[in-house]
Amino acid sequence: MMQRCDDGSKKIDRKIIEKNRRTEMKKLCFKLNSLVPSLISQPFKLITQESQFDQSIAYIEHLRDNIEVLKGKRDEALKIVNDANKNNVQGDIKDDQSSVSCNDTCLSSTVEIQEVDGGLKVLLITSLEEKILFSKVISIVNDGGAEVVNAGYTTLGDKVIYTLHAMARVTRIGIEVTSIHQKLQELINQSS
């Protein structure tokens, strides 16, 4: 008789443990669902766990690729800053892309603009003492006929490196590169 009670309680214990495990897995799946952008818009009941995990893996791989791209851009910006500091030249001019760069008396600041595939890449390097509102930089680029696609800044030692990627709003009209460069130069001169 004792044996039957023990077997019954063991079954109940296993059922409770299994129920708790399933509840915990469901909570974790909801949490994963809330973190992956492609899964947020889909109702949870319509997503199988297998497809949820597949989409999560794809999203994580996408983020990993973006990290590698950003590391490459950071290394490129560091190289530009280091080259500028070594050579007292304020920016690189690449032969295969048209670019405008600041080479005059702006020793502490640099503006480099490159036209790339119907778009624009802006690199602005200033010292920490110079107070430049990033929103003004974005507004200057927008006023020049470009729509900012990606923007960011980082600090490196006593320098602040602003990077912008923009595309032409109207392709056939293009972007006013010279005007953007002049206005950015004026902004730097005002902040100096």
From TrEMBL:
Claim: Transcription is one of the keywords in the record: yes
Domain of life: Eukaryota
Alphabetical keyword list: Coiled coil, Nucleus, Transcription, Transcription regulation
Domain BHLH intervals: 9-63
Record keyword Membrane present: no
Localization (cell): Nucleus
Entry's transmembrane regions: none
Gene Ontology cellular component terms for the protein in this record: RNA polymerase II transcription regulator complex
Chief location bin: nucleus
InterPro entries for the chain: bHLH_dom, HLH_DNA-bd_sf, MASH1/Ascl1a-like
Database matches in PANTHER family: ACHAETE-SCUTE TRANSCRIPTION FACTOR-RELATED (PTHR13935), TRANSCRIPTION FACTOR BHLH167-RELATED (PTHR13935:SF46)
Name of the protein this chain belongs to: BHLH domain-containing protein
